[in-house]
Amino acid sequence: MRCPPVARRGVPIPTASTVSGSPPPSGAVRLEVDGLSKSFGPVHAVSELSFTVEPGSVTGFLGPNGAGKTTTLRMVLGLMNPDAGTATFDGTPYAALPTPLRTVGAVLETAFHPARSGRNHLRVYCRAAGLPVSRADEVLVQVGLADAGNRRAGGYSLGMRQRLALATALLGDPAVLVLDEPANGLDPEGIQWLRGFLRHLAHEQGRTVLVSSHLLSEVEQTVDRVVIVGAGRLVREGSMEQLRSGADGAGTVLVRGPEMGRLAAVLSAAGTNVSQDDGVLTVTGSTPAEIGHRAFAAGIELHELRPRTSGLEEIYFQLTSGQEQFAAPPAGTTVAQEAAR
Amino acid sequence: MIRLVRSEWTKLFTTRVWLGLLIGACLMVAGFSALIVGFAGAEQNGQPGLPAVGDPRFEHVAFAVSTNAIVLFLILGIIGMTQEYRHRTATPTFLTEPRRWRVVAAKLGGYALVAVPFAVLVLAVNVLVVTVYAGARGAAPSLSGENLRIVLTSGLVLVIYAVIGVGVGALLKNQVGAIVGALVYLFVVEGLVRSIPATSGAYKWMPGGAQEAMTATFQGPDLLEAWQGGLLLLGYGLLAAVLGTVLAVRRDVV
Fold first, then answer.
1. Do A77 and B99 touch (CB under 8 A)?
2. How far away is chain B from the Cα of A243, in angstroms, using its nearest Cα?
3. Residue A315 domain-assigned?
4. pTM of the full structure
């Protein structure tokens, strides 16, 4: 179960207008992607993709491998030239940002010179961005790598590499964070830490966070909004609640108890669709409230009464797998290109 | 731009590649300097070989020995550029400075500046070995006039080759390919062109010919004037730099 931040932290989710308490130095910045397209030869890696990422929330950028996520992020960050469309941070493309590292922090891949220490790796980019080299030590502490800073990055574990990449993104204390599969290689403890960290950056500091993943379950507990892509096209954009309500499980209720036969008869008599399997009653076309009321009125004991919400992963799968099948040959080529990187 | 150059220096001096290349260059030049002095005046298959110690022609060739280290300065520049692609640090580098021409310019300038003290050290090794050894053999050459000019232009050649290396690295991106290509070019292609009569006329227009024209040569082919050779070599350096910059700016970083 996703724990709503409101209950856990006891504070309302900050929005762009309410973050004035502790805003990042550079202020809230909105990322706007408009009609982005990119082809590699005959393969349409990204086609007319548009979405926005709002400050103060964590947005999940989801899609199967080869859906064009990495290509999109590389265009957003000015590393690839789009065939068409724009990606802007408060109206400015990445390449035109006066101080890019202070505005946007990005983790695209865990890329280090293996012989250089983690601390020196960070110092390289402090120098290049005109930041004080002391920032290197600060972000090392922030991501929990303070003790490993003097070791060669080549000797880091996968999880430590992810943390160092995240540290690089945090150097400029940016208003926007763009992270490509940041949970790769993290152990469960690391993933939990990352979740809390990203939510803190977005909800309490009002930053804009975009995090890509090919697994909904991986970011389900972290993100507030989702942008789902398949075969380079936008499949769904909206809040997690909207995604949940659109799940196939909506309207299906599971009931458990000692008298399910009698309840089935009562509900059938009321014209509801009922099926019984292994002591569990599956009711469609009704609500938990209605079923509970009828059971109460008939004096039937209930042990469990819940809407089926496990359809979230299913709807994600339906949304994306259909796209992939439709575009199997070109999508396969893109996967190969991404794998060859 | 200064911060980008400093960033390049941090990159260079936080791994040990520079140390290996510098020590290699010093050892190489020390060895060749000793060989040149050692074989001065010796006969080759009954033919007169190198001029004897004390002969100005010997002194010119002996003070141009530093240019043997061009291969290591070339590799220094190549590694400086291609490590970004090899270790994928091109991504954070270009994220930090999206105007990529500035990154390449900082590398070109940064490596040219770093190559100056490196070259001075290599020249010092050459001058030291030649002066001491030739002195022991009877006539220590003076570091003045034409001799001094050759020492200084040899240093300039080394610096230019570091710049060419950065440009070649930006062109080829593949570190191993660029280094192997550079070695093959320097040790095979130029040598063949220089020694085959039909093609030796073109040699003076090649980087090696320009370098020989700038410094000193022995039993060499037809060459340009020294200043022409200097301009030509600088031209090659600039060409590599411009081509490398244009490609680095236009290409997608994947």
1. no
2. 32
3. no
4. 0.79
Looking at the structure, tell me whether residues A274 and A143 fall in a common domain.
no
**Residue A116 at interface with chain B, using a CB cutoff of 8 Å:** yes
Q: Are A52 and A32 in contact (CB under 8 A)?
A: yes
On whether any CB of chain B is under 8 Å from the CB of A129, the answer is yes
- Does B4 contact A128 at a Cβ distance shorter than 8 Å? yes
Per the structure, the complete domain to which residue A199 belongs is given by 5-245
Cβ atoms of A51 and A33 closer than 8 Å: yes
- Given A94, A109, A129, which is nearest B88 (Cβ)? A109
| Structure ipTM | 0.86
3-class secondary structure, B77 = helix
Instruction: Identify whether residues A180 and A147 lie together within a single domain.
Output: yes
Are residue A299 and residue A213 in the same domain, yes or no? no
Minimal Cα–Cα distance from A90 to chain B, Å?
17
- The answer to whether residues A232 and A298 belong to one domain is no
Query: Cβ of B254: how many Cβ atoms within 10 Å?
Result: 18
pLDDT in tens, B213-236: 888 766 667 788 888 888 898 888
Question: For residue A85, is it within any domain?
Answer: yes
Residues A241 and A259 both lie in one domain: no
Which of A112, A120, A341 is opposite residue B10, by nearest beta carbon? Answer: A120
What does the longest C-alpha to C-alpha distance in chain B come to? 64
CB A225 within 8 A of CB A59: yes
Any idea what DSSP says for residue A130?
A: T
Please tell me which of the candidates B10, B90, B96 has its beta carbon nearest to residue A123.
B10
Domain shared by A288 and A212, yes or no = no
- Chain A neighbors of B102, CB-CB under 8 A: none
A333 in a domain, yes or no? no
Tell me whether residue A287 is in a domain.
yes
CB atoms within 10 A of CB B3: 16
Of A295 and A328, which is predicted with more confidence? A295
Number of domains, chain A: 2
Return d(Cα A331, Cα A325) in angstroms, integer.
9
Residue that finishes a domain, picked among A197, A225, A245:
A245
Q: Residue B98 burial by CB count (10 A; 0-12/13-18/19+): exposed, middle or buried?
A: middle
Per residue in A54-102, pLDDT (tens digit) is 999 999 999 888 888 999 999 999 999 999 999 999 999 999 999 999 9
Quote the DSSP letter at residue B15: S
Residues A74 and A208 in one domain: yes
A124 shares contact with chain B (CB less than 8 Å): yes
Rounded Cα–Cα distance for residues A34 and A88 (Å) = 8
In this structure, which amino acid lies at residue A1?
Answer: M
| Closest residue on chain A to B10 (Cα) | A124
Rounded to a whole number of angstroms, the distance from the CA of B122 to the nearest CA of chain A is: 26
A14 and A129 within one domain: yes
Boundary (domain end) residue, out of A245, A277, A299: A245
pLDDT of A13: 33
- For B91, which of A81, A95, A111 is closest by C-beta distance? A111
Query: Nearest by CB to A100, which of B10, B16, B98?
Result: B98
CATH number of the domain to which A39 belongs = 3.40.50.300
Residue A112 touches chain B, beta carbons under 8 Å: yes
Cβ within 8 Å, pair A95-B10: no
